[in-house]
UniProtKB/TrEMBL annotation:
<dbReference type="InterPro" id="IPR007423">
    <property type="entry name" value="Sel_put"/>
</dbReference>
<dbReference type="Pfam" id="PF04328">
    <property type="entry name" value="Sel_put"/>
</dbReference>
<protein>
    <submittedName>
        <fullName>Uncharacterized small protein</fullName>
    </submittedName>
</protein>
Length: 67
């Protein structure tokens, strides 16, 4: 029974990570990590400003969006 429970937990964890990545939950964290790694000493946008920038860029450059 323990192996089944552990497997179910792992599947749930992978699923949450996948859905979170798909929905953008990790975008800001990855942006901050990138900024700190590749542009040390430069200011990092607040999460609110980051999402404003992302949405403005998407509106200015719709690309291959369906809608």
């Amino acid at each position: 029974m323990g192996r089944i429970t552990e497997s179910a937990r792992q599947i749930g964890s992978y699923w949450r990570t996948f859905v979170g990545d798909l929905m953008g939950d990790t975008h800001y964290r990855r942006y901050v990590e990138h900024q700190l790694r590749t542009h040390p000493g430069e200011p990092v946008l607040s999460e609110r400003d980051y999402w404003r920038m992302r949405h403005a860029a998407a509106e200015a450059n719709p690309g291959a969006r369906c809608c």
